[in-house]
Amino acid sequence: MVGRGVAALLLYFAFVGADEPTMQYDTIVIGLGSAGTTAATTLARAGRRVLALEAQDRIGGRVNTVQFGDGVVELGAEWIHGTRPSRVYDTAIKNNITVLSQDLTMDAYSSDGRQTDKELVNELVEFCLGQVENSTNDNLPLGDFLTKKLKEHLNATKPSILQDEDFMENFLDLMDQIVGNYEGSNSWNDVSTFTHYQELDGDQHMSWHRNGYKTFFELLLNTYQGGPGLANLSIKLNTEVTKIAWPQKPLTPVEVTCQNGEVYKANNVIITISIGVLKERYTTLFTPSLPEEKVLAIQRLSMGVVDKVVISYPNKWWPNSNAFWFNQTKQERDKAVKDSGWVTYFGSVPFGSSNTLTLWYNGDAAKLVETLPEDVVKRKCVELLQRFLGANVTVPEPTGMHRTTWFTNPFTRGSYSYDSVTSMKYPNSRADLGRPLLDSAGVPKVLFAGEATDLTHFSTVHGASDSGYREAMRLLPNRQDIKQAIDNLKS
Ligand SMILES: Cc1cc2nc3c(=O)[nH]c(=O)nc-3n(C[C@H](O)[C@H](O)[C@H](O)COP(=O)(O)OP(=O)(O)OC[C@H]3O[C@@H](n4cnc5c(N)ncnc54)[C@H](O)[C@@H]3O)c2cc1C
Ligand SMILES: *[C@@H]1O[C@H](CO)[C@@H](O)[C@H](O)[C@H]1NC(C)=O
Ligand SMILES: *[C@@H]1O[C@H](CO)[C@@H](O)[C@H](O)[C@H]1NC(C)=O
Ligand SMILES: *[C@@H]1O[C@H](CO)[C@@H](O)[C@H](O)[C@H]1NC(C)=O
Ligand SMILES: *[C@@H]1O[C@H](CO)[C@@H](O)[C@H](O)[C@H]1NC(C)=O
Ligand SMILES: *[C@@H]1O[C@H](CO)[C@@H](O)[C@H](O)[C@H]1NC(C)=O
Ligand SMILES: *[C@@H]1O[C@H](CO)[C@@H](O)[C@H](O)[C@H]1NC(C)=O
């Protein structure tokens, strides 16, 4: 027995010795969104040598702040959803960066430019969103559940509204779209009432305004206002990973191959690519192939789509408001679908510039808008804004447009994950996705982070960041581990 132990130890040192000159990195992080940037900077700040490989030409992933209008706009994530406990919010506050609360109560306009009753609509929206939070036990399609709750509520409090069929049809359609904007779903009946999602305490719509969400990444990376970065973190942009070889033999490196032919080795790798990209690539990305548990998790989790069209004007001309609902009759909505294939329901006012407006799309409408020629999209959007918001002013020509393509983008393939009606059947999918692949000695070799792996805060920037931190900590010895190791040595 003793002889075998010594032999194993000698083998261990032979390996470590042999690998040391070539093993440039401790950890390779794939993807520099919120999860990857948090993981990479946490490890590098602890002195680990980290290589981060990012396929796109920028850091941020599903956060993308761009210069636009007279400031910045967010093409991806826009708000900090809740402040306690939030790594994102804390990072801003610790660095004295102001964030501003944005009230997104909707003003409602009809196609002739008149304001319609927004009090009642906002009150009923609040009621429905409140029900969503209280609905975690049964597995019902969310739309059916909310319709039932709303009807009971109106029957008890405002029975005449329940009799107004046009109003009800219009409001239920609006609520379907609001759910779609939260979830990225196509229909509110694709979404389940069963979910482990938890809202953080505090304000749900804190904006980075003119700082931009990109500031979060600059602060993590120590590049804010010309900061020098982190000594132990190497970043390669425009570097798409195509292969991850993870031999199960202990002490053999993980080998990561890139589209450009480069090959990198490290002790372990943290993968942060979206569930949409994993669905498309998991069969070719890994050698050996992923275990069944992981494959099933990837197949079972749902990826939603939310897109924006942001338009700039020479100056602000629209009514004072942070959010608009374009209240259309059923006939108008049917006509919009017939004419152009989609209906525009919502607009919001970016907090990072004064002369831009955002229109929102989700589900199939978003996928369609992504594929149309830009000038077609622009014309339709400009007409709509003119009609609903321009009744009392001369509307200037737009100066520019950004149309997002989160589904078409091969490195995102959607916007964020949501709990679909099948999620209750597979309640462990997120945990299964987040569990590391181990070598035959039980040491984590391939680790998984990213929004979709967070059990309670998936679909958000703070959830993604938490997941990156979680996986970094898996690789860092904590005091408890060290104490245990010393105790073991003593005994
Ligand atoms: C339109 C929109 C609005 C949103 N609004 C909000 C909001 O207001 N608040 C909020 O909290 N959240 C919001 N979200 C969600 C939030 O943006 C995401 O949950 C979060 O940013 C995901 O971070 P991540 O690190 O998990 O993944 P990602 O940001 O997707 O990072 C993964 C990275 O991996 C890279 N990658 C992919 N494949 C490869 C490869 N083969 N090789 C190398 N690199 C690769 C990608 O380019 C990407 O940079 C929004 C998202 C969208 C799209
Ligand atoms: C990073 O690596 C260098 C050696 O290149 C080391 O001297 C330094 O202490 C490390 N930095 C941190 C923050 O750990
Ligand atoms: C933030 O502001 C406080 C008070 O002005 C100051 O003491 C602190 O050093 C600042 N912190 C950073 C990170 O700039
Ligand atoms: C949620 O449920 C709790 C307990 O039943 C109740 O007190 C609360 O009012 C409910 N919230 C909403 C928004 O209905
Ligand atoms: C409405 O409320 C009354 C009692 O106030 C009840 O008898 C009736 O069944 C309710 N209708 C619906 C559709 O819930
Ligand atoms: C939408 O506008 C119409 C008037 O065009 C109004 O009758 C209706 O109540 C509005 N819908 C809602 C849900 O407020
Ligand atoms: C236009 O002016 C009317 C009358 O003041 C007002 O009711 C309406 O809300 C305005 N519409 C817009 C789009 O500003």
UniProtKB/TrEMBL annotation:
**One Gene Ontology molecular-function label:** polyamine oxidase activity
Keywords, in A-Z order = Signal
Please state the span of the N-terminal signal peptide per the UniProt entry: 1-18
Report the domain of life of the source organism. Eukaryota
What are the residue boundaries of the Amine oxidase domain, all occurrences included? 35-476
Q: Does the keyword DNA damage apply?
A: no
What name does the UniProt record give this protein?
Spermine oxidase
